[in-house]
Specification:
Radius of gyration: 55 Å
Largest sheet: 8 strands, mixed
Strand content: 15-25%
Distance between the termini: 132 Å
Helix content: 40-55%
Number of strands: 26
Length: 810
């Protein structure tokens, strides 16, 4: 029965299962790793090959599309020649172009003033309709750049785009050609794309302009696809993977057409592209299954050959463990198992020989154990007695008495260590009169056995000091009638407490068990002494805390008195804070139309009403606004208009406060700034001109940024110098500081005459800053509201204040 159980154990959980599982696991692991590596390498190779091939096709398609658009642009430019200078000649050229180029759907002639002069399609034509295209980007951009490719648009889900070409000659106009982009599908035929792949072209908004037979429908918005969204993002590059409109994974690549802003995408479903990988995985699975079968058969055969001798060894070891030392194991395998069986038999013989001595040794060890138990009981009693008191004067006699009891000695001395004098002082003695005079009461730490024991942390035993004439303790110990000495150090992690000296009158060695027992006893004695000292220190500190509590109570009374004083000071501080808050509110109201430093000056003045009272003074007035803002607000959304105004006002506001100008008013894009009011400024005209130059330099980059967002805006400035009546206008709940006079009207009219990025000033202003600027006179201006022509000039740049030498030379 036992043999059957052993066999079942080996088959289920023993070496048999371990060997079989190990061999099977090794074979499966090697085959799986090899298959995984081959699959990964094949996957990378197939993916790289497909991606590279699609990338080449995408680049070639993008080049062909760009070339075809360039050819169209070149053919359209033919009808812009200067020789066709009449409507009839233009009409003939347009008709010829429509007949030769089927991609051109319609041609429109816009004259230099932005009016439609001719529109010709294959069905109709219109002459001198005078439709206004002056704000159309196709006209404005073509007049600026010469050639414009307008964004694509859709009509009846058919893609179109416009190409604008500027005519030769001055202000000759623009030809706008409407292009039917349906021809782009010719570049994405199945012969070019392939049997499994698909391709499509998208504009910057992600709308499909052309597609292969398997691609998305034209006019579909695919901007939500991850590969398209990543490509349309600013500064992005092509990605190697994505999804189609149904959410299936695809391998993808793309190529950009920078001139048009379009992108060509080539894609292939990942499932089709990686079909060879599936076949390879099937082959690997079959190979692993075959290897698993072979490994199981081989592991079973090898494990069974080891099962019989191991079973015999296990049975013999069990009988030896049960005490049957006469049993011998028979194994004939001529290998390490047979050698192991011989060692088992040899061990059985040795166990039979040593078993006879075991009972005697057990009796001897039992006797030693009983002695050790008695010593531990004594040590426990000693420890309990030592730890029973926290009074150091009571602890030391207890320690000495118990040490004398344990060692059966004739005398015991306890020394305390004094670190200040580097000496050991006798604190307790048993067996020697403590009042007797002698050198044993104080022992110098230098060259002393007590110091040596404390340094090593181990007891020092001296069997007979009478035979050691050079020993430091010989005269003291032998003179008192003792011969053998045991020095036990009293030390812990905090330092040296002292030493315990055991004296015997009879010479002889101290047993090692006794020395070890005294070492343990010394540890307990040190703990009791430390506790006693700690108790003494705590008692002293408690008295000190009582004294400190009395002092703290006295200080608390003083703090209550100081708290009452602080309440009075706090009330005074609240009144001062209320006064300061009123001052801050006045400054905040003034900062709505004055520079911060001017507002603070008025607020800190003893008579601010005098500074803002109605009076007449010479002032410099700066008026600026945006060119084309009214048309801009009509053509764009209110939110975009507000964003532009915020950027515009933020840029101007910093410069107004920097040059200490007074913001009189602003309405939409128009801003009016005063200088020399209400605060007098000696160089108010120079400040105004310098601020205007810096405004132009600051708003210039903003207009370029707005232009990139499709907003054609310019910035003009007018500056005038003259007298005006200044003061507060309005009613009690709403007062503003304003200037009234012809000088404000003149600045506004000059601003109206200024071209984009131009600063127009009156001749009087130019005369005040002529030495500091570079400018030029312009023709006399006939301005609305003024009976005579106005002398004006243009400020080109600020040169800076002239040096003293240059001023003297002039």
């Amino acid at each position: 029965m036992n043999g059957v159980n052993d066999k079942v154990w080996f088959l289920r959980g023993g070496l048999f299962a371990k060997y079989v599982l190990a061999l099977v696991g090794l074979v499966v692991f090697v085959l799986a790793v090899n298959g995984a590596l081959e699959t990964w390498i094949s996957y990378r190779g197939i993916k790289s090959t497909l991606t590279d091939a699609m990338s080449e096709k995408a680049d070639a398609t993008a080049r062909r599309i760009e070339q075809s658009i360039s050819d169209l642009e070149r053919q359209i430019s033919w009808v812009t020649r200067a020789s066709s200078n009449t409507i009839e000649l233009r009409r003939a050229d347009y008709a010829q172009l429509l007949g030769q180029v089927p991609q051109v759907n319609q041609l429109t002639l816009i004259d230099g003033n932005g009016r439609e002069a001719l529109r010709l399609s294959r069905q109709t034509y219109t002459i001198n309709s005078n439709a206004d295209f002056s704000r159309d980007l196709r006209f404005t951009e073509a007049m600026t750049r010469g050639t414009i490719f307008a964004p694509a648009y859709f009509r009846d889900e058919r893609p179109y785009m416009s190409i604008g070409e500027q005519h030769s000659g001055v202000n000759a106009g623009v030809t706008v050609a409407e292009i039917d982009l349906h021809f782009l599908g010719e570049f994405l035929g199945d012969s070019q794309v392939g049997r499994l792949a698909l391709a499509y072209v998208v504009d910057p908004k992600g709308r499909v302009l052309a597609s292969s037979s398997k691609g998305p429908a034209v006019a579909t918005d695919v901007s939500a696809l991850p590969q398209v969204a990543a490509r349309l993002a600013p500064g992005s590059a092509t990605t190697a993977s994505g999804t189609d409109s149904d959410g299936h994974a695809v391998l993808t690549t793309s190529s950009a057409m920078p001139n048009l802003g379009w992108f060509v995408f080539y894609e292939q479903p990942t499932a089709q592209a990686l079909s060879p990988i599936r076949d390879q995985l099937v082959r690997i699975a079959l190979l692993i299954a075959l290897g698993l079968v072979v490994a199981i058969i081989a592991g079973t055969i090898l494990a069974r050959r080891m099962l019989v001798p191991i079973t015999a060894l296990r049975t013999g070891a069990r009988r030896l463990g049960a005490g049957d030392f006469g049993h011998r194991i028979e194994v004939k395998t001529a290998d390490e198992l047979e050698e192991l069986a011989g060692q088992f038999n040899s061990m059985a013989s040795q166990l039979a020989e040593t078993y006879s001595d075991l009972e005697w040794k057990v009796k001897e060890r039992t006797r030693d154990l009983a002695q050790s138990i008695n010593e531990l009981k004594v040590l426990e009693e000693v420890g309990r007695a030592v730890a029973s008191s926290l009074d150091l004067n009571a602890v030391l006699p207890t320690v000495g008495a118990r040490a004398l009891e344990i060692t059966h000695a004739d005398a015991v001395l306890i020394y305390g260590y004094d670190a200040d004098t580097s000496s050991f002082n006798l604190t307790q003695s048993i067996g020697i009169d403590p009042q007797a005079e002698g050198s044993h009461r104080v022992i110098d730490a230098a060259n002393s056995p007590l110091t040596d024991a404390a340094a090593s942390g181990e007891p020092l035993a001296f069997p007979d000091l009478a035979s050691e004439p050079d020993h430091p303790l010989r005269d003291v110990v032998v003179g008192a009638g003792f011969h053998s000495v045991l020095v036990v150090p009293l030390v812990d992690q905090q330092g040296v407490l002292g030493a315990l000296v055991v004296l015997r009158k009879a010479a002889g060695d101290f047993p090692a068990s006794l020395i070890g027992l005294m070492k343990t006893f010394a540890h307990q004695a040190v703990l009791a002494m430390r506790n006693a000292r700690l108790f003494t220190e705590v008692d002293q500190k408690s008295h000190a805390l009582e004294q400190a509590n009395t002092i703290v109570g006295e200080q608390a009374d003083k703090l209550r008195e100081q708290t009452e004083e602080l309440k009075d000071w706090n009330k005074s501080l609240e009144e001062r804070v209320a006064t300061q808050l009123g001052e801050i509110e006045r400054i905040r109201r003034l900062e709505r139309f004055l520079a911060p430093q001017v507002a603070q000056l008025i607020a800190s003045s003893d008579s601010p009403e005098g500074l803002l009272a109605s009076h007449r003074r010479e002032v410099t007035v700066v008026f600026c606004d945006l060119r084309g803002f009214t048309a801009f607000t009509e053509a764009t959304e209110p939110e975009e208009a507000m964003n532009v105004l915020r950027e515009y006002h933020a840029a101007l506001g910093k410069l107004i406060f920097k040059y200490e100008g007074t913001l009189d008013k602003y309405a939409g894009d128009g801003v009016m700034i005063l200088f020399n009011a209400p605060i007098l400024l000696e160089d108010h005209t120079a400040r105004a001109v310098k601020m205007a130059v810096e405004m132009r330099d600051t708003i210039g980059p903003l207009t370029e940024r707005w232009r990139n967002r499709g907003h054609s805006l310019g910035f003009g400035i007018g500056i005038a110098l003259g007298y005006a009546t200044l003061g507060q206008v309005g009613f009690e709940q709403r007062l503003e500081y304003a200037a009234i006079g012809s000088v404000t009207n003149l600045a506004s009219r000059l601003c109206g005459e200024a071209q984009p990025n131009q600063i127009v000033v009156s001749r009087r202003v130019f005369g005040m800053v002529e030495a500091c600027v570079e400018g030029r006179a312009i023709d006399d201006l006939v301005l609305k509201g003024f009976n005579h022509p106005i002398l004006a000039a243009e400020i080109l740049r600020w040169k800076g204040e002239p040096s003293a030498e240059a001023a003297a030379a002039e």
